[in-house]
Write a sequence for this structure.
């Protein structure tokens, strides 16, 4: 098992995943062509979304899948509740879905008396810890095994033991659940089928045992056909975890006998992103998490350091797209080194978009420091103003400088003579 030194371990762990991605991608000589191809497929699909979504819906309905459309998070949650009520369901097993995080489905259902069990191991850990995922693909990467043992109330911090305990506990929930909820990785228009990828088989077990399967997808998940699916599956696993294929890659096409599948197709702000040419490329994202594994800021700060539900460079973009005032500042938490853009399997120009959101933030949000910067600019460009200000500063009482920034820092005393005065005296 891979071990990491105690300091900087999160950075090391994420960098380890990034290196695994590098190694497996190098096994494919045409890797860069594959990225370009995937980017082109996505660019084509998102600019013809109406056509592909309609084709997908038509075929899915023909296959016996019940299709619902949700304009926003509130509608998404209401549709799910309506299905649960109709089924008289009480317990739900849920596999990983960033869309349900985005729509805050768990608290919505829990407040209405439903029991929701996250079944992906990492998601289950953060659910028990009452936290949100810190990574798109590795939700509990920020926690050490000792912390997981504490969350499980188990004195044994051995990862194999902890995993076995989680398996025993989850197995009971799987057996007694009424409904299984999953996300969707890809929806294939030509087939009316959708694909769910997990490494733990939890989506498969949940949907096999429960009578009702509710799958949720953003409108951008649709792709034209099965040939395209091959392109994305090759890219997704390698970019996400450095595996050649995700362990369980399941295609859902029609409900089994006496069972039903509901599929909810959600917009929730995606059409608005699509309408902005500069930022529409973000909809190409296949949620592999590679941009976060490589980002020098997020590798050190972790996904909880910033306030949008989707962490990492893509989350900073999507957050700013959702609400520039609330999340636009995330665009500044970047070195703009372009490493995210360099690894993105669908060639999203992430760092350029971040720069774009910085400009948008500046145009939309006025901050007090803008006034300070303007004052400093006028001061620094005028030698007369600058030297006069320095002379005046010496006369003012030191306590006047005790402003917010200095509350927890020691403000140095202003020297009696400036460097220029000393210099002039000695020459
Ligand atoms: S933006 Fe690209 S690298 Fe980041 S999660 Fe999406 S597909 Fe992966």
């Amino acid at each position: 098992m891979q071990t990491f030194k105690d300091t900087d371990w999160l950075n090391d762990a994420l960098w380890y995943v990034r290196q695994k991605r590098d190694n497996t991608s190098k096994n494919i000589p045409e890797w860069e062509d594959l990225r370009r191809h995937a980017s082109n497929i996505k660019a084509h699909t998102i600019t013809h979304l109406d056509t592909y979504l309609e084709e997908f819906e038509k075929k899915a309905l023909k296959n016996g899948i019940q299709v619902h459309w949700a304009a926003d998070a509130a509608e998404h949650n209401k549709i799910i509740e309506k299905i649960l009520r109709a089924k008289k369901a009480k317990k739900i097993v849920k596999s990983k879905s960033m869309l349900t995080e985005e729509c805050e489905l768990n608290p919505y259902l829990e407040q209405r008396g439903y029991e929701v069990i996250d079944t992906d191991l990492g998601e289950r850990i953060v659910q028990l810890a009452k936290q949100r995922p810190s990574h798109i693909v590795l939700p509990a990467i920020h926690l050490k095994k000792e912390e997981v043992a504490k969350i499980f109330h188990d004195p044994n911090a051995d990862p194999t033991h902890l995993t076995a305990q989680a398996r025993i506990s989850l197995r009971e929930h799987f057996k007694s659940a009424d409904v299984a909820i999953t996300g969707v990785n890809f929806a294939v228009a030509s087939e009316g089928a959708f694909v769910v990828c997990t490494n733990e088989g939890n989506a498969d077990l949940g949907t096999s045992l429960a009578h009702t399967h509710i799958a949720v997808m953003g409108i951008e998940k649709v792709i034209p056909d099965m040939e395209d699916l091959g392109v994305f599956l090759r890219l997704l696993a390698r970019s996400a975890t450095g595996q050649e294929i995700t362990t369980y890659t399941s295609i859902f096409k029609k409900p089994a006998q006496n069972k039903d599948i509901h599929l909810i197709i959600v917009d929730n702000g995606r059409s608005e992103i699509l309408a902005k040419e500069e930022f529409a490329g973000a909809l190409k994202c296949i949620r592999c998490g590679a941009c976060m594994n490589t980002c020098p800021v997020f590798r050190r700060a972790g996904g909880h350091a910033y306030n949008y539900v989707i962490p990492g460079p893509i989350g900073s973009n999507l957050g700013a797209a959702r609400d520039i005032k609330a999340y636009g500042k995330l665009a500044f938490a970047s070195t703009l080194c372009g490493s995210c853009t360099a690894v993105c399997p669908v060639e999203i120009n992430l760092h350029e978009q971040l720069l774009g959101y910085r400009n948008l933030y500046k145009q939309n949000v006025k901050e007090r420091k803008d006034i300070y910067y303007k004052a400093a600019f006028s001061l620094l460009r005028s030698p007369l103003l600058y030297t006069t200000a320095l002379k005046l500063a010496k006369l003012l009482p030191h306590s006047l400088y005790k402003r917010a920034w200095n509350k927890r820092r020691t403000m140095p005393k202003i020297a009696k003579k400036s460097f220029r005065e000393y210099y002039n005296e000695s020459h």
